Amino acid sequence: MSGLSTPSALLQASPAIVVGSGLAGLSAASQLIFHHVPVVMLDRAPKPGGNSIKASSGINGAPTRFQPCDTEDTAFYTDTVVSAGRPLSSSTSTERLRREQLIATLTQSSPSAVYWLTDDNAIDLSKVAQLGGHSHPRTHRGAGKKPPGSAIITTLLDSLTRDPLFELRTQAKVTKVLREADEVTGVEYKSPGTDPNATTRLSGPVVFATGGFAGDAQGMMMRYRPDLAGLPSTNDAREGSQPLLEQVGAAVVDMDQVQVHPTGFVDPADPAAPVKFLAAEALRGEGGILLLEDGKRFANELGNREQVTNALMKAASRLETPTRQWEVTLLLDEGAATALAAHLEFYVWKGLMRKTTVGELGKTGCQTVCQTVQEYADAAAGRTEDAFGRKAFGNWSLGDVQSDSVVYVGKVTPVTHFTMGGVVFNEYSQVLDQSGGVIRGLWAAGEVTGGLHGQNRLGGSSLLECVVFGRIAGNAAAAFHQKHYKTVP
Questions:
Q1: 261 included as an active-site residue
Q2: What is the reported pTM?
Q3: Which end of the chain, N or C, is more open, meaning fewer C-beta atoms within 10 Å of its C-beta?
């Protein structure tokens, strides 16, 4: 057993079990601790944080005091419904109601989710950008050097590990969810250094927050989306955990709905690497554009992720590499770069982006690239309408484009990034079975769940769903624990 906190005698009272140490798990654990319920958190990885710690664009919230205006009304809900697409619009009336309730809970709870992080946990989320598929700026991040995922995860984890009611066990792989009659009663897990056939049993109500299966290339991805085989991913290779919940009766939905993010960095030092750093959507939100090899744009960079990805795959040439990838140039001017100084500093340090001039990008001087960037600059300045219908230009400031105009560039390609499918759950974070019944003693939050995002997830809503439904799960599990288990005085 390994971990970041020392086991406490207080935990001998039956704990609540949180599986997964990303933002959904940490949010659930925080609420359980708030209600004085002991928590054992299990994570199969050597280090905590999951994919949440890598999140780089931010967390959605609307309306909040950090936004330029507070006149959104139902726009966030509407944008999310539109983004959900066919799985929502073609569902039965009962299923549509469940999905709409999930979306309503997500969007209506978004201000309190942001304020829980900023006011209760002192995390800076004062900068707001507009990402693809959004009608307003509503994606929050901090003004400091830490990306939002890292800032949020490290703060919550530090707080939890100081509490004697909390214990983190890393390298603890859950192999079975325990169910007796109609109730989940705990889990079994394996730890390194023990008999490979031996498992440890832990009893208590369970919150599952284990993430998706975008990195499970030879397993669940091959089963549900074999057409995406060979694409690089932003996710490390690891098994999906939905089958563990299916074994205790959980239903699954939307398993074929996989989000391919249009911009994963192509590292010049290892172009065919199967796992790639995400080029944060905020890079486009703050003004960045995408250019083909001939120096031309091909899409509204702030369309939703599915739209931009499809346009990129259609317009760009596929490379001859072991991985299925394309290659286009992501370009930012100095205004956009300044707004994303912390991101740029990291990307440049990693060799994923570089500082150059517009003229150096053209094969024969400025020509096409200069013309393309000038046309975009004119639209950003309000002198013309953008040819691709883009309406938001972030902090783009370059007006008069010259051959020596400074820009920042990097190569990007589509990558599998997020799985919208998962176990069926409701607005109370309860896991449902095939008949729509609640599985007692079991809750789920984050990417392990399905039905919220439908066909496409809006950027910034992943961290949001982790906080909203993680906290709901934590509160519900605490109430269940206090009623059915021995509690700490």
A1: yes
A2: 0.90
A3: C
